[in-house]
TrEMBL record:
It comes from the Eukaryota. ANK repeats lie at residues 39-71, 134-166. This is Ankyrin repeat domain 22. The chain crosses the membrane at residues 87-108. InterPro entries: Ankyrin_rpt, Ankyrin_rpt-contain_sf, ANR22. Keywords: ANK repeat, Membrane, Transmembrane, Transmembrane helix. Gene3D superfamilies: Ankyrin repeat-containing domain. It comes from Cyprinodon variegatus (Sheepshead minnow). PROSITE patterns: ANK_REP_REGION (PS50297), ANK_REPEAT (PS50088).
Amino acid sequence: MGLVYSEPACQAAYGGDLQQLYGILKENPTLIDVQDQHTGDTPLIAACRNGNLNVTKYLLNNKANTQLTNKKQRTCLHYVSKRTLSLLDYLMISILMPILLLGYFLLLQKQRKSVELMEAVLSSNVNIDAIDYKGNTALHYVCQRKSHRLVPLLLKRNAKTDVRNKDGETPLDIAIRLQFTKIVNMLRKEN
């Protein structure tokens, strides 16, 4: 199902409908940064929330504002960092795993798409250390999600590793608590 936005530009971005979004923005280019009245999401946040790489690239190429936050004080980078496999993805991977390792290749494809989405957003002027209403940065979320492929991308852009969220945890504290050894080693090496 997914989210339903009151703003057509946000709905098109969330749904991955690049043609519809193009038509909306051609008619009124100022809608590129329109914010939904219920969530505060912009089309860029909506696209990142649903992992729509082509829509995200299109919006970034057309100078969508990466600094805008929604009502939860989250930027597009927060949503890229929070992305995880859906229940359907896990189901498909587990069903296809015994069949010529198709599930493994599906998993690798999903992980590559996450890396591409993160790289696209990081290529913009996004605030890498933006803090949401829970005090979390993008680095907190990739540590929570065990996204060991995304951690180095954030560290390469000098993401702060010492930011404490409202629970008093740094990204390293989260990785230690969840016993994500590979991420713990990356963060310790950075410090």
